[in-house]
Here is the input.
Amino acid sequence: MDEKDLPVPRNSRPGESFAPEKSQKLMFEPAAEFVELPSHGYLYKGITDDEDVVKKGGVRIRPMTVNEEKILATTRLVKSGQALDMVFQNCIKSRIDPGKMLSSDRVFLMLWLRAISYGNIYKFQMTCTNPACSKRFEYSVDLSQHPIKEMKEGVQEPIEVELPKSKYHVFFRLPRGIDEVEMVKISNQPKKMNDTDDTVVKRLRSTIIKITDQDGKELPEEYFEPFIESLVAMDASTWRNKIESSDAGIEDITGIVCPHCETEFDSPIPITENFFRAD
Here is the structure.
């Protein structure tokens, strides 16, 4: 997918690039190391010509400094959803706009950045999923050894999925950093007491390229959200499964055992307020 096909977030001013400017030069800048991305850079050929990304399938990234800790401690940047992008812009030394990177690659880089900046072992509190227990306990993972799901070679955008019930065809791209910022903006908007959470609909809507019926006729864009809201469960599940099977990602933690009741369960790696801190 080319750079021109990616939207500009609405919280950017006209003429302003989504990616923040590089910070001032550091007196002692840490050395950057090369890390391969879960997507192998398959979908970035129209976004950058950096050989690290398009040929080697990765990026060069350096550890965080106090300068990046200042960014993460700035409430307005965190609330706007731009803090992480500013950190990426400073720490990623390959030529690629972090906002145009896949969300799955960004999650991986966030874990990698935490590991090289504060250490591989990440400790956090888990809550037992057994309703009769629900007790909290400390758990830890080695971020450098945690399994990832790699993107399969040959994935191209737009990705097409046929919905089994409605027989419509949805053409979509995978989520990017720009979509994350838009979701943060939506979640920060004031809501009335009876308002429902529409981030699920907005998240799917943001990645749609086009929708066609059985005869190939395109659905007008103003009907995209009503279309999503009216999907039967089978169609919605098929669409989500197609997204998951096409994308890369971080695997869940498996085989967690509650020390209080011995219930075994799986969980995504939780990103807590202590994530970017040394244990």
About this structure: The longest helix spans residues 103-118. Residues 181 and 248 are 20 Å apart (CA to CA). Confidence is low (pLDDT under 50) at residues 8-23.
